């Protein structure tokens, strides 16, 4: 087992040990002073968790000079806006973990009058919105190249949005941590991973439940519909999280730079449009 694979497992075990110590404090009467039976072991576990987080980031970081960006087709059509883009900072999501050093998030942002507008962030109300309130929900996701499907995971629910202040706090402090403990598959939600060849893999995260049109072992053509955009996994609202990596397992992969043919790498807040006939070429 590689270090990159072992580190996230160690992190999850540390969380479980910490929770066990907290539960033991309330439901058992361990002999000795509390600082020795609960507090001190908890502090040791926390220090180990911090060390593991640092090790995880270092293990997943790219080695040597960054490889040239791999050019692929855009994974969507229509008008979208980019967030958390590697055009602005690397790692784009603040971590190298899960092979997402050069990941990007994109949200459907149709022209006024074309479709319902994307709901804005609210400080108080409404706390949550259904996925169908967002134009990205249900949008087709397309293969970025001729490829082989190596992973196709479906079945996780599309939860309500977290695009209010209280919803975001809940995601950051509670839900996000729980998903991290369970594993990468709960963070990326329903997903598809394609083998593009030459050691390059494309990851599509947060797909709509029941929308996958492919399964592991299938071959796909560039521009072929493989799923629909959803709101599964660790998300604030329906969107596509896309990145390239050097292996099929997010727990054991390093990120690879990408560029979308005809689009490039849109920066944070930048809106771009992909015509359907271009994406289907």
Helical region count?
A: 5
Bin the strand percentage: 15-25%
Mean pLDDT: 82
Helix content estimate: 25-40%
* String of helices and strands: HHEEEEEHHEEEEEEEEH
The CATH homologous superfamily name of the largest domain equals Glucose Permease (Domain IIA)
Task: Walk me through this protein's architecture.
The chain has 2 domains: 3-60; 70-279, Glucose Permease (Domain IIA) (Distorted Sandwich), CATH 2.70.70. The strands form 3 sheets. Strands 2, 3, 5, 6, 7, 8, 10, 11 and 13 form a 9-stranded antiparallel β-sheet that branches. A two-stranded parallel ribbon has the order 1-12. Strands 4-9 form a two-stranded antiparallel ribbon. Residues 33-37 have low confidence and may be disordered. It has helices at residues 3-27, 34-60, 165-182, 184-188, 276-279, and strands spanning 70-72, 78-83, 104-108, 140-142, 147-153, 191-197, 200-205, 219-220, 225-228, 240-245, 255-256, 258-260, 271-274. With 281 residues, the protein is α+β, with helices and mostly antiparallel strands. A hairpin with a 2-residue loop joins strand 6 and strand 7 (200-205). The longest helix is centred in the first third of the chain and has 27 residues, at 34-60. Helix 1 runs antiparallel to helix 2. Helices cover 28% and strands 21% of the residues.
């Amino acid at each position: 087992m590689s270090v990159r694979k072992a580190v996230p497992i160690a992190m999850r075990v540390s969380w479980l040990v910490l929770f066990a110590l907290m539960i033991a404090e309330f439901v058992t009467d361990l002999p000795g002073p509390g600082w020795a039976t609960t507090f001190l072991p908890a502090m040791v576990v926390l220090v180990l968790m911090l060390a593991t987080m640092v090790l995880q980031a270092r293990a997943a970081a790219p080695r040597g000079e960054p490889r040239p960006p791999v050019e692929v087709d855009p994974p969507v059509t229509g008008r979208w806006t980019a967030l958390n883009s590697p055009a602005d900072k690397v790692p784009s999501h603040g971590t190298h973990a899960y092979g997402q050093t050069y990941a990007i998030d994109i949200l459907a942002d149709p022209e006024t009058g074309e479709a319902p507008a994307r709901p804005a962030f609210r400080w108080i109300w409404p706390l949550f919105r259904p996925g169908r309130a967002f134009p990205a929900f249900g949008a087709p996701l397309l293969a970025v190249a001729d490829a082989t499907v190596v992973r196709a995971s479906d079945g996780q629910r599309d939860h309500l949005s977290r695009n209010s202040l209280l919803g975001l706090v809940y995601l950051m402090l509670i839900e996000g941590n729980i998903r991290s403990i369970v594993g990468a598959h709960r963070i990326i939600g329903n997903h598809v991973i394609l083998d593009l060849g030459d050691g390059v893999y494309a990851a599509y995260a947060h797909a709509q439940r029941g929308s996958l049109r492919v399964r592991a072992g299938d071959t796909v053509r560039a521009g072929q519909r493989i799923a629909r955009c959803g709101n599964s996994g660790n998300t604030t609202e329906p969107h596509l999280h896309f990145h390239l990596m050097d292996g099929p397992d997010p727990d054991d992969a390093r990120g690879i730079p990408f560029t979308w043919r005809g689009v490039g790498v849109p920066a944070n807040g930048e809106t771009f449009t992909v015509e359907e006939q271009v994406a289907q070429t």
